[in-house]
């Protein structure tokens, strides 16, 4: 059984289809059709809902963290122990919520189909910021598309509702909601079981290892932003899933003198602060990784584990020399991330083995790390080419070089010939040009609807040239740039 709060109503579910999304649960099972399906792929934001989780600050203060999510990509099992808020829950005692009033008064809605999603994104923004600036408002709304109204009045609604916000019913009930979330906090393995399909929800790494050993055919579910597409887009059935999002040990970020250890189930939003503090280019790329809704759900381990050749984080992590810890039963092994990827969607992971954590070296002033993403649009788009460069110079000579790309091969990988051309040579134009030519030995990229093979190779070479130029003249830096 799983338990969660539907606003303030306790829901206990056991026999639901584990493949059921929160979107369809709201619309078909509890009669809340305000949440809309626009794309069923996490691109349009019409299905946005807000999920509240109990959090404890470093000073011991308990509060509820509210985050916007795409309900079309969220399976119901992930709600275990949490609070789900949909657009119907905002109106209180016959009065619209302040974010709804702002949308009305600023004329932020026309056909209305996308409006519930915008309202929920604004609600999350209001809850998480006392006075959001223009950039924060854009970030909060970047995952919501509107085809008819235009974004100016919606941004005005964001300013009106968030810059002079008043306490609402959720603030008034916070203490009671915290107590209710504590009361339903999971204490044992949860489960949804419809007879022919099941989803198991472990709470510890040991439980996860045991379950995965017992069900090696199970699909591991973290954020679900990739896995859920198999259900919503390809109409496949997932007979057995194991949801890892309630394993607290895999959601920690631990800082050591020489490294960060990031739990594989840590959301990309939660990774941001730690990675941005060490590597600002990594932080910049995470801002462009996808919409805020997706970053709130998607995990660093998931972005590695799905072994996509166009995943944005692996090239950066490979260039940084990151490692992963793989767990199987009580056995653990540490593997260089570059050795994890073998072929298209083929990895070194063994049966019943899972990624427990990612180990990222801390930044060094001696190493010059930069990352770049080429995509058709600036925000919320998949890379055509993603490049990461990390070199160390001694007296102007390249002493170490790690160069990695995504989108250039069947796997994210290092550019060995390029690195060889750089190593031991003065870091100058002639060396960079030799290294650019060597990229043609490293990669024979494919052509697809994102870019031709010629465009990809030339872009990769130009990004190396860009890296060189920026290091010579750092004042003209324009990192993580998109090319149209």
UniProtKB/TrEMBL annotation:
Q: Where is the 2Fe-2S ferredoxin-type domain?
A: 1-90
GO terms (molecular function) for this protein are: 2 iron, 2 sulfur cluster binding; FAD binding; iron ion binding; xanthine dehydrogenase activity
User: Where does the FAD-binding PCMH-type domain start and stop, copy by copy?
Assistant: 192-365
Matching entries from SMART domains are given as: CO_deh_flav_C
UniProt xrefs under InterPro entries: 2Fe-2S-bd, 2Fe-2S-bd_dom_sf, 2Fe-2S_ferredoxin-like_sf, 2Fe-2S_ferredoxin-type, 2Fe2S_fd_BS, Ald_Oxase/xanthine_DH-like, Beta-grasp_dom_sf, CO_DH_flav_C
Sorted keywords for this record are: FAD, Flavoprotein, Iron, Metal-binding, Oxidoreductase
Report the superkingdom from the record: Bacteria
**What residue ranges carry the coiled-coil annotation?**
none
Has keyword Metal-binding?
A: yes
NCBIfam families (alphabetical): xanthine_xdhA (TIGR02963)
- Please report the name of this protein according to its UniProt entry: Xanthine dehydrogenase small subunit
Which organism encodes this protein? Answer: Pseudomonas fluorescens
The organism that produces this protein has a lineage beginning with: Bacteria, Pseudomonadati, Pseudomonadota, Gammaproteobacteria, Pseudomonadales
């Amino acid at each position: 059984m799983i338990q969660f709060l539907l606003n303030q109503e306790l829901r206990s579910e056991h026999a639901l289809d584990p493949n059921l999304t929160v979107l369809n649960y709201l619309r078909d099972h509890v009669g809340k059709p305000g949440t809309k399906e626009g794309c069923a792929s996490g691109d349009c934001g019409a299905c946005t809902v807000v999920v509240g989780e109990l959090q404890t600050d470093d000073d011991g203060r308990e509060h509820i963290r509210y985050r916007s999510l795409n309900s079309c990509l969220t399976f119901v099992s992930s709600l275990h122990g949490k609070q789900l808020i949909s657009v119907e829950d905002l109106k209180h005692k016959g009065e619209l919520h302040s974010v709804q009033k702002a949308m009305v008064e600023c004329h932020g809605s026309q056909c209305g189909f996308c409006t519930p999603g915008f309202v929920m994104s604004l609600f999350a923004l209001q809850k998480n910021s006392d006075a959001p600036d223009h950039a924060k408002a854009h970030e909060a709304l970047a995952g919501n598309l509107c085809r008819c109204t235009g974004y100016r009045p919606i941004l005005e609604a964001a300013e009106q509702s968030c810059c002079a916000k008043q306490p609402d019913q959720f603030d008034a009930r916070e203490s009671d909601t915290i107590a209710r979330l504590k009361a339903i906090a999971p204490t044992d393995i949860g489960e949804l079981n419809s007879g022919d399909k099941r989803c198991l929800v472990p709470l510890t790494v040991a439980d996860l290892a045991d379950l995965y050993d017992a069900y090696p055919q199970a699909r591991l579910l973290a954020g679900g932003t990739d896995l859920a597409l198999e259900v919503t887009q390809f109409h496949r059935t997932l007979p057995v899933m194991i949801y890892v999002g309630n394993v607290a040990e895999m959601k920690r970020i631990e800082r050591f003198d020489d490294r960060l250890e990031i739990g594989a189930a840590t959301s990309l939003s939660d990774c941001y602060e730690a990675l941005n503090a060490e590597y600002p280019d990594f932080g910049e790329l995470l801002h462009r990784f996808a919409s805020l809704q997706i970053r709130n759900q998607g995990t660093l381990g998931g972005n590695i584990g799905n072994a996509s050749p166009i995943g944005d984080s692996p090239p950066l992590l490979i260039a940084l020399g990151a490692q992963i810890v793989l767990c199987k039963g009580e056995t653990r092994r540490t593997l260089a991330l570059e050795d994890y990827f073998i072929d298209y969607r083929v990895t070194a992971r063994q049966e019943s083995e899972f990624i427990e954590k990612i180990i990222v070296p801390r930044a060094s002033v001696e190493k010059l790390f930069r990352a770049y993403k080429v995509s058709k649009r600036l925000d919320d788009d998949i890379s055509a080419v993603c490049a990461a460069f990390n070199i160390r110079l001694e007296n102007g000579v390249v002493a170490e070089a790690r160069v990695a790309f995504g989108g250039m091969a069947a796997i994210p990988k290092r550019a060995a010939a390029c690195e060889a051309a750089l190593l031991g040579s003065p870091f100058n134009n002639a060396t960079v040009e030799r290294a650019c030519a060597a990229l043609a030995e490293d990669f024979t990229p494919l052509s697809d609807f994102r870019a031709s093979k010629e465009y990809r190779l030339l872009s990769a070479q130009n990004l190396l040239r860009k890296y060189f130029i920026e290091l010579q003249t750092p004042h003209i830096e324009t990192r993580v740039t998109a090319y149209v």
